[in-house]
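An instance follows:
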Amino acid sequence: MRIERANMVKPHPPPVLCQLVEGRQVESVERRGKNILLGLSGMGLLHVHLGMTGNLFVIPDVRFRCLSARIWFELDDGKGLIFEDPRTLGRLRFYHRQEASGLLAELGVEPLSDQFTLSRFVELARSSRQPAKIFLMDQRRIAGLGNIYAAEALFRARMDPRKSLSRVSRKKLAALHQAIVEVLNQAVECAVKAYAKPGVFQEAEEFPCQVYAREGKPCLRCGHSIRRIHQGGRSTYFCPACQR
């Protein structure tokens, strides 16, 4: 194991973390949102949080890792498990499994899981007074829906990101629920294609955004100028004419 950025593994000192991990086998892999849990032999557990720009993947030869590889593991056969993170916002922690019980208990429903039904979504929406965009990005309610995809789903559903979902009709909530699933399925397809190409995966360049990062440009649906506002410390892009 090699750690290039010590801040990504705090509070573990890198030499201690390497000693804890080296020689163990990966026995299981679980994902919730941007959280990846790697179950290790000897009852160990690695918790990887991808942050905004992180990726975790295997390459055929660890020697040919990318420049933005911050942490990597050399496997027995020479392959490499690479934690790439250009902005170094991701994190990696080691736990003994008995310490990790309930580690992701506060995360909400996965939007591509069977549990993300319309009834469940309506129930969550009715219980919140948050603006729609803030609600969608609240990981305690929906796990794994990020800034880009939340904005795109709201656009497809013609919904104002500033409006509280508790005031929205069930019909509009159904449109938003469908848009979330469609956007994420399309994003997965784009990701598969992007990972199949050489070089660094760039989420925003691969996904065909209709509003995100298009401030001042004409709406692809009505021609009105796309607007950008700040919500929860992040930029929200929307069409004030289409999204009401």
Remarks:
- The CA atoms of residues 148 and 212 lie 6 Å apart.
- The chain has two domains: 2-99, 118-238.
- The beta strands are 2-3, 26-32, 35-40, 44-49, 55-59, 69-74, 80-84, 91-96, 227-231, 234-238.
